[in-house]
């Protein structure tokens, strides 16, 4: 591969947004697609998505939720069934009007989410309390039209999972909603090395068709917040709109209580923003496509090849995802640069000297520390380092989030923070849409979440000074 | 779940096509979607697809092919680039004309296959012989418009994998084409318990845009053939049409040699047809969502519950996929019936008597044989039985295929076979399109494949009596 051509990477410490796009393109994670608003996820980016899928799919199945596949195309009339739902989505729809060479008598919507088509089937399939709970998830592609692409973060097509459960009681549904929310927070924490704030969204910010929406919010290095996954309490809204009833134990009709929850390739955008520096990406080991790369430093040498192959096999056997870079024709500097841009956590350098002394030099991507280790101890040592890097990534992001979370009850202070450094602001708010809209218009900050364990306080709304009981998280959102 | 209501299944020995649809609906593998031509893959059917994906994905990655994701929507002009390609696909396209509330200035095609959009990106990304080979696969959804749905076998939307590789030489590309073909045959053989015939397709039957198409063909119980996976030699057709060149080692421009290969959810249709009987499905253990189901036979009993749970844990630990049916309120007959329709290979019955004697009764789904085994030996014994069932499924289908493969050089005999019992017919053919078309019009039989190892013969075409050198497989196709 012609991978070692010189690629000048933009600086993260310069224009953050330019760096973000540049590092995604140069690490070959993704690229712009020919259709406006769409993107291509290249193998290096897709391997990250596969790691996320494998991790979450196991948690989803352990909870008893089964995967299925529902159709891409939804009859237009289905979307119209739930009033808020259709109003929320109609500006973003892609519409098929011609199929099989003919103009369709009814337009078909490319799914922006699958509530309507799935619940129509639930209604056909499930008629008794014995059929509940319904626990179904799907991994698929979604279209919500966007005019301008921002790789991973804002694209007309994205990949996600959408879970759709139905229960006999609201309390049972609620347990599932909170389980999904915690699963998302756990995925960020343990896999992506990111610290999220979980909580409930305001009425304005909730999902179109839901009674309540919960989300995990992550603070990005530029002080803006990313909504990283949502879990919705749909109440009985869809069941009522579709007239779906099941017979309960007493033979009475019941509208099932429903929830839906989704996590998308947007999360990869957050991962990139948080885990990188002027040299490129710096991936937490648990989600990295390759956790280590072996670089033979000397020119071609048969005994070195054997040494490298043996090391590779040993690492693979112990479960480390490892690549070998055999392109000894390129300069060492270019090779280092290439793997640094890609953010591979550990670089294992082996030259003639290392081989003769039965050693390997390990260089960490996160802090550039180097040490030389006995080949016998490399596997155990590498595993310790990888674990440490994973923990430190999370600790760094947690500290960053804490350092950039401000608490204020003074609106001029609020405005000053938003205009200077941004970040999360925790402020009392009266929960009126008017104040929320005015704060947004004046500062760009929107309500992000109210944490589930937020205590009741007695104070005054940051904006209108009327009574307020809860301290919400505000931030400018992606 | 209300799973044990009486469900009268249509007989396979009656109308085969009615049985096929009925067993898919009643085993809850799939259902018709609200949009004509589309289907829903329910959890039980999707678990089969997940098993196929896991099996093939490992083989694909071992070969060095990476997964990626390319966009669903393709600009109309892309499809027009390759003449045969667009002519082959245009009658089956779904077209997006409205997006984001506006009429689009250029229509977007919902991908019927991804050659054009992928190779446009290859052209942007890869410029040197060092970039070759390009080895990329994707798992995604495809739309090819159909008016009438035949569950799994003919649907407007289906799921598949599509591999798209590019090489410096035709011979290297050819190796990949044949590797993919053999991978598909192996998946049928070792996972799905089915015997396929592999070979090259005729000019008429090849993929639109390919120089050559190879496929694996499987004989169904009604004597029709199912095309079960295809691998295409695209030559330099797309590279030339798109003007994609890379510089070779001497610095000269080269159009890369390309191949594409696909395997879809259609295969599940073949699996159902071959592996079932009047009682429902009978799944080969390697692909079955559950390989065994444990049925406590007595009414509720705490010690029995513990016994069942222990057995379940033991089986899960040894890697057996196992379900427990605790619905002791329903009649035993209905419960047996339910799991038979679903085709679970082994039923483990435990009553009070079995528990007291530390025994389990195993009933095989394929031949209904029952035996009672010591609980200590159940894991080892079950694994032997499952292995045997898998091998016997393949042996049965191989024998069926052989018994229904006819060889004739007499056209009246050919017509008689096609009008009476169908099956594969091996006949000499002059390889002219005219004879092929006339045979099809008169008998419904099309050429399926010429096996790769078919010896050259010297004889006369079954239709026109002119010189013919090869004995092709003919059959009526699904």
UniProtKB/TrEMBL annotation, chains A, B:
Matching entries from NCBIfam families are given as: proS_fam_I
Protein function: Catalyzes the attachment of proline to tRNA(Pro) in a two-step reaction: proline is first activated by ATP to form Pro-AMP and then transferred to the acceptor end of tRNA(Pro).
- Which is a GO BP term held by this UniProt record? prolyl-tRNA aminoacylation
Q: Which GO terms describe its cellular component?
A: aminoacyl-tRNA synthetase multienzyme complex; cytoplasm
Would you say which domain of life the source belongs to? Bacteria
What are the Aminoacyl-transfer RNA synthetases class-II family profile domain coordinates in residue numbering?
A: 42-284
Q: Quote the protein name from its UniProt record.
A: Proline--tRNA ligase
How does the record comment on the protein's domains?
Consists of three domains: the N-terminal catalytic domain, the anticodon-binding domain and the C-terminal extension.
InterPro entries in the record, alphabetically?
A: aa-tRNA-synt_IIb (IPR002314), aa-tRNA-synth_II (IPR006195), aa-tRNA-synth_II/BPL/LPL (IPR045864), Anticodon-bd (IPR004154), Anticodon-bd_dom_sf (IPR036621), Pro-tRNA-ligase_IIa (IPR002316), Pro-tRNA-ligase_IIa_arc-type (IPR004499), Pro-tRNA_ligase_II_C (IPR016061)
Please give the family membership noted in the entry.
Belongs to the class-II aminoacyl-tRNA synthetase family. ProS type 3 subfamily.
What EC number(s) does its UniProt record assign? 6.1.1.15
In terms of SUPFAM superfamilies, this protein maps to: C-terminal domain of ProRS, Class II aaRS ABD-related, Class II aaRS and biotin synthetases
- Give the enzyme class: ligase
Location of the protein in the cell: Cytoplasm
Keyword annotations for this protein? Aminoacyl-tRNA synthetase, ATP-binding, Cytoplasm, Ligase, Nucleotide-binding, Protein biosynthesis
Q: Which reaction does it catalyse?
A: tRNA(Pro) + L-proline + ATP = L-prolyl-tRNA(Pro) + AMP + diphosphate
**One of this protein's Pfam families, by short name?**
ProRS-C_1
Q: How does it assemble?
A: Homodimer.
Q: Which organism is it from?
A: Candidatus Gottesmanbacteria bacterium GW2011_GWA2_43_14
User: Recorded GO terms, molecular function?
Assistant: ATP binding; proline-tRNA ligase activity
């Amino acid at each position: 591969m012609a991978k070692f051509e010189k690629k000048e990477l933009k600086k993260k410490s310069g224009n953050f947004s330019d760096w973000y796009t540049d590092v995604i393109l140069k690490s070959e994670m993704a690229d712009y697609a020919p259709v406006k608003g769409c993107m291509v996820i290249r193998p290096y980016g897709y391997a990250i998505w596969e790691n996320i899928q494998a991790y979450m799919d196991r948690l989803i199945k352990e909870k008893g939720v089964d995967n299925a596949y529902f159709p891409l195309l939804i009859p237009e009339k289905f979307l119209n069934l739930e009033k808020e739902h259709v109003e929320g989505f109609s500006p973003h729809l892609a519409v098929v009007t011609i199929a099989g060479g003919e103009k369709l008598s009814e337009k078909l919507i490319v799914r922006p989410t699958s509530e309507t088509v799935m619940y129509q089937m639930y209604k056909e399939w499930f008629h008794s309390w014995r059929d509940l709970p319904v626990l179904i998830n799907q991994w698929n592609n979604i279209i919500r039209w966007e005019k301008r692409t921002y790789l991973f973060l804002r694209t007309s097509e994205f990949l996600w999972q959408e879970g759709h459960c139905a229960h006999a009681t609201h309390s049972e549904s609620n347990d599932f909603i909170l389980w999904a929310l915690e699963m998302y927070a756990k995925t960020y924490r343990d896999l992506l090395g990111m610290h999220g704030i979980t909580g409930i969204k305001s009425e304005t910010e909730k999902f179109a068709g839901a009674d309540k929406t919960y989300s995990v919010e992550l603070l990005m290095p530029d002080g803006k917040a990313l909504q990283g996954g949502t879990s919705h309490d749909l109440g009985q809204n869809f069941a009522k709109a579709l007239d779906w009833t099941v017979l309960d134990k007493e033979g009475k009709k019941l509208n099932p209580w429903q929830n839906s929850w989704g996590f998308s390739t947007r999360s990869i955008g957050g991962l990139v923003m948080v885990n990188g520096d002027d040299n490129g990406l710096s991936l937490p080991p648990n989600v990295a496509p390759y956790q280590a790369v072996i670089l033979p430093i000397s020119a071609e040498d048969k005994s070195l090849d054997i040494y490298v192959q043996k090391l590779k096999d040993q690492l693979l056997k112990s479960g480390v995802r490892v690549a070998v870079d055999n392109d000894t024709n390129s300069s060492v500097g270019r090779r280092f640069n290439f793997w640094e841009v890609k953010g591979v956590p550990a670089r294992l350098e082996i030259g003639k000297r290392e081989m003769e002394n039965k050693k390997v030099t390990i260089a960490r991507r996160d802090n550039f520390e180097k040490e030389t280790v006995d080949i016998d101890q490399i596997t155990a040592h590498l595993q310790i380092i990888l674990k440490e890097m994973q923990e430190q990534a999370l600790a760094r992001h947690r500290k960053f989030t804490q350092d950039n979370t401000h608490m204020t009850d003074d609106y001029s202070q609020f405005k000053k923070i938003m205009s200077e450094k941004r970040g999360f602001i925790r402020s009392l708010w009266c929960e009126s849409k008017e104040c929320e809209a005015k704060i947004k218009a004046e500062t760009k900050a929107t309500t992000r979440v109210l944490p589930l364990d937020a205590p009741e306080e007695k104070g005054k709304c940051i904006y209108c000074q009327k009574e307020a009981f809860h301290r919400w998280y505000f931030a400018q959102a992606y």
